[in-house]
Specification:
This protein is mainly alpha-helical and 139 residues long. 45% of the residues lie in helices and 9% in strands. The longest helix is centred in the first third of the chain and has 21 residues. The two termini are 32 Å apart.
């Protein structure tokens, strides 16, 4: 029947995307992976207007300011595109938001900020697949 075929198609699609997550997107180019899992929020106000509030968007905006300079994030309407890191372990999700822009930086710059934001003494791999909190994305 049509409903059975529909459910089969939905199940097949769901299984495909679960396989992508369980395999840590090994066969997917980084750009596609980032497009698939990144979250994007737009700031409705200036960063300073939020004060000490915490959210993934605010953490991303503050880190973008640190990485790109305050002038890049001063206006309202800032687009905050981020992924969730597995480090620092046990930290709230708001503290594990990593701006996607860092993955286009030169390796030395990328390494510096990822170590700082993930609170690691050293970082063995700059591969996004080793940085992501896959459990977060599977939930």
């Amino acid at each position: 029947s049509d409903i059975v075929e529909c459910y089969d198609a939905v199940a097949s699609t769901a299984n495909y995307w679960l396989d992508v997550l369980y395999s840590k997107a090994q066969d997917m180019p980084d750009v596609e992976l980032i497009d698939l899992i990144s979250e994007n929020r737009t700031m409705s106000r200036n960063l300073e207007d939020y004060g000490t509030q915490k959210s993934t968007s605010l953490s991303t905006a503050r880190r973008l300011a640190e990485f790109l300079g305050d002038a890049m994030v001063k206006d309202k309407g800032l687009s905050c595109k981020y992924v969730i890191s597995k480090h620092p372990e046990g930290a709230p999700v708001t503290e594990r938001a990593i701006p996607v822009a860092i993955f286009q930086a030169e390796p030395s710059v990328k390494r510096h900020y990822l170590k700082k934001w993930m609170k690691l003494q050293q970082i063995s791999s700059l591969d996004i697949r080793e940085i992501l909190d896959w459990g977060y994305y599977l939930e």
